[in-house]
Amino acid sequence: MAATTDDTHHEEHMATPASARPPARRRKPGRIAMAVSVFGELLITAGLVLGLFVAYSLWWTNVVADRAADEQGDKVRDNWSQGPTGPGALDTKDGIGFLHVPAMIKSEILVEKGTTSKILNDGVAGYYEDPVKATLPTSGKKGNFSLAAHRDGHGAKFHDIHKLEKGDPIVFETKDKWYVYKVYAILPETSKYNVKVLSAIPKESGKKKAGHYITLTTCTPVYTSRYRYVVWGELERVEKVDGERTPPKELG
C-alpha cells in the first residue's frame, strides 16, 4: 500500500498544471544592456540618414544638374540658329559653346563663364576668371583655355577624366568653328592651390613657348576635393562649321 500511495502521490504531482505554479520572475535588462541597445538604434538611424544623403549627393544632384545643363544648352543652340550675332555675343549668360571629350564622356558638356560652385553645380564646365584668367580660343590669341568641372555629384562631367590618355582628342564647339585639341600631358595629382597649371604657358606640362593650349581640371581622388587632376591639350587645327554642323572626324 505504501508503494501504491507513493506512486499515486508522484503521478498527482507530475500532473499539476503549469498555471497552478507560481510565475517565474523576469530579469530586467541592466543599464549597460539598455545603453548598448539605444546606441545600436541610433547607429542604424544615422546609417539610414547618411545613406539618404549619399544618394542625394551622388544621384539626385546629377539628375537636377543634367536637367539644368540641358535647358541652358538648348538656349545656346537656339541662339545660334537665329542667325548672325554681334561682337562679344559668344560670351552669353547661358554658355559659350560645347566641349566634346569622347574618351571621358559620350555627351557634350556646356561651357560657361566662371568656376564658382553656383555655376559648376548646374552640370557644366566653367572657364577660369580667377585666379588666372583663361584665354578663349575664339579670341585668336595664344594662351591657355583653362576649364573646371565637378568629378562627382552635380552632373559629374569630369568623373572619368582619368580615362584620358596622350593623343586623345578634346574638341571645343562654338557657333562657327570646331577647335580640335590633342592631349599631350597629364598630371594625376597636384595641390589645389597650384595655380601654375593654369598659366598661359603651362610649364609644368613641359611647354616653354606660348601656344594655343587647353587645360581640364577637377578634384581627385574621386569623392574628395583634396587634390587636383590636370589634363593638358594643344590645339591641332580649327575647322569651320558647315551647314549640317558636321563634326570633325575625331567625333565621328
Automatic annotation (TrEMBL):
User: What would be one Pfam family of this protein?
Assistant: Sortase
Q: Does the keyword Hydrolase apply?
A: yes
Which residues are catalytic? 150 (proton donor/acceptor), 219 (acyl-thioester intermediate)
**Which of UniProt's keywords are assigned here?**
Hydrolase, Membrane, Transmembrane, Transmembrane helix
Membrane spanning residue stretches: 32-59
> Could you tell me what this protein is called?
Sortase
InterPro entries the record matches: Sortase (IPR005754), Sortase_Class_E (IPR053465), Sortase_dom-sf (IPR023365), Sortase_E (IPR042003)
Question: What is the organism lineage in this UniProt record?
Answer: Bacteria, Bacillati, Actinomycetota, Actinomycetes, Kitasatosporales
Q: Where is this region: Disordered?
A: 1-27
Compositionally biased residues, Basic and acidic residues: 1-14
Mention one GO molecular function.
hydrolase activity
